[in-house]
Amino acid sequence: MVVQSDFIPLPEREKVSEPEMKHRAKEFLKELKSRRTVRDFSDQSISREVIENCLLAAGRAPSGANQQPWHFAVVGDPEAKKKIREGAEKEEEAFYGGRAGDEWLDALAHLGTNAEKSFLEKAPYLIVIFAERYSIGPNGEKLKNYYATESVGIATGMLITAINKVGLVSLTHTPSPMGFLNELLDRPENEKPFLILVVGHPDPDTTVPDITKKSLEEIATFLE
Fold first, then answer.
1. Tens-binned pLDDT, residue by residue, of the chain (224 aa)
2. Is residue 148 part of a domain?
3. How many helices and strands in the chain, by DSSP H and E?
4. Which of 9, 75, 98, 167 has the most CB atoms in a 10 Å sphere around its CB?
């Protein structure tokens, strides 16, 4: 549970001119255009300090009532990663074997995905993101968390962006259902698995699907 402090002045921020804003916006877009989801990772190690700072950046995300209803379980232990892979592949086999309808499988076909998830073992880190459905008060009472899913989604987006910023790649993986992750990672029942973020360096021979993103006109409307 987060206790709100007294109000303070807005921390001093760098003053940025209009031309510099335009330049930075273009550069940031250029940088994010290089972000791609990959499924082939190398086993090259990553400094824990890098991951820690990416998580701290994600932790700066806005959240409903500033309750910060997220928990990041960072898994680097090979045996733990193996167990996560086994649990995920069990669910994925059921998914590809009939749980998902033909329409869903048809939508995934162009990405070439299947039930085999070797990246869950090869990548140096798995960050399992949990959403706190409710908090536990000092007397053991349940305290409602507001907009938990939305808040955790924002934090996850910031984490993905931070990981790209430092030169790493990631993959969002959502085996369904994900309840097995609570038991494997010893997380309490008030936390619901949100997704597994696979993090590492890309394999030198990795390839990605040749896809495009929607145009500005397709994703935005300006009312001026």
1. 555 678 999 999 999 999 999 999 999 999 999 999 999 999 999 999 999 999 999 999 999 999 999 999 999 999 999 999 999 999 888 888 878 778 877 888 887 888 899 999 999 999 999 999 999 888 989 999 999 999 999 999 999 999 999 999 999 999 989 999 999 999 999 999 999 999 999 999 999 999 999 999 999 999 99
2. yes
3. 8, 6
4. 75
CATH code of the domain in which 162 resides: 3.40.109.10
- The structure tokens 């145009």 sit at 215
The residues, ordered by sequence, that sit 6+ positions from 118 with a Cβ below 8 Å of its Cβ are 85
Instruction: Flag whether 149 is in a domain.
Output: yes
Considering the domain boundaries, does residue 11 fall inside one? no
**Rounded (10°) CA dihedral 10, 13, 16, 18:** -20
Domain of residue 199 covers: 37-203
Instruction: Give the total number of structural domains in the chain.
Output: 1
Cβ neighbours, 10 Å, residue 27? 10
- Cα–Cα distances (Å) from 37 to 77, 171, 202, 206, in that order, read 23, 5, 10, 11
